[in-house]
Amino acid sequence: LTVLGLESSCDDTAAAVLRRGMDGRTEILSSVVRSQTNLHAAFGGVVPEIAARAHAEVLDYCVEEALSQARCAIPDLDAIAVTAGPGLIGGVVSGVMCAKGLAAATGLPLYGVNHLAGHALTPRLTDDVAYPYLMLLVSGGHCQFLLVKGPDAFSRLGGTIDDAPGEAFDKVARLLGLTQPGGPAVERTAKSGSADTFALPRPLLDRPGCDMSFSGLKTALLRARDTAVAQYGGLPEQVRADLCAGFQAAVVDVLAEKTRRALRDYLDLALAQPTLCVAGGVAANGAIRTKLEAVAAVAGAQFVAPPLALCTDNAAMIAFAAMEQMETRAPDGFDLAARPRWPLDTAQPAMLGSGK
Ligand code: ATP
Ligand code: FE
């Protein structure tokens, strides 16, 4: 079984070819990712219109490149998979149109995949992970706990009620004059700081459940910065490092405590091998990873974090999700819609129109 996947829901254009052998093992034959970061750098964020045009321009090239790296031709393929949402609608439309064109020209079955399902299923591509497992998805745009019960069956246990942590890391970097993407810059700077200098809040820890909030933390950091600037007439290196360390420690504490709670509910299922998985760009953070690994160990759960290239946006996860879903559902028709919103725990088949 050989599947071509396409991904264009944010600022990366990606194509990948995966093959599943008779033994059930899946191999990534190619995974091409073209980042648009340089196109958006001057604007301080992704500009949807620019992103959509850029996707439309490079999708064909990415497909050719993925096929050539995989030493594959169109006749070797068994299906086309594409991100059909959620995401920036212009980019999603570009990918869906490209996939429909390929499917129409070749007669291959077409699978519209939920981008979040792609992220959430990735641990099964890289590791020996059985359903159901607990997934913490933490990225630039998302933060949620998912119980992954099957390729097409997800329950959301809780998540952020405002910003995603990645977004908060990026904002904090901007407030402190660090480079983008903010996550790596804040993590680096935090290494020479003390987390105890500034008392930053741990939002929603006093409330039951797994919901999280990060926007108040951002505002608290802004106030602490302004107070420091007023006091020192600028932002001394040490203060900047202390602010980064304080912010990161607050995010770590919130994620750790909420993960403990999500694990508690999940462990009630009394599975032979309980597993906690993380995915998303923020899972690259060493302090967060180490802490979550410790939380899993205390709870007696296995901890799985896919390699970073498969944690951030890519098309291998889209092709893989389609492969997993093929066993349980029919392909999509040419009425497959691009959806800006598509919560994971609603019915999977994409409905006509832009679902809410
Ligand atoms: P989504 O997948 O939700 O649509 P996205 O594509 O923007 O969003 P990713 O590519 O998964 O998200 O992750 C990017 C985010 O991860 C950025 O916000 C970035 O700052 C953050 N990030 C990357 N490395 C680190 C790190 N070491 N520490 C904290 N955050 C990080
Ligand atoms: Fe993503």
TrEMBL record:
Select a single GO molecular function from the record's annotations and give it: iron ion binding
Q: Which residues bind Fe cation?
A: H115, H119, D313
Gcp-like domain location, by residue? 27-320
Instruction: Write out the similarity annotation.
Output: Belongs to the KAE1 / TsaD family.
Functional summary from the UniProt entry: Required for the formation of a threonylcarbamoyl group on adenosine at position 37 (t(6)A37) in tRNAs that read codons beginning with adenine. Is involved in the transfer of the threonylcarbamoyl moiety of threonylcarbamoyl-AMP (TC-AMP) to the N6 group of A37, together with TsaE and TsaB. TsaD likely plays a direct catalytic role in this reaction.
HAMAP family referenced in this protein's UniProt entry, alphabetically: TsaD
The name of this protein is tRNA N6-adenosine threonylcarbamoyltransferase
Species of origin: Roseobacter cerasinus
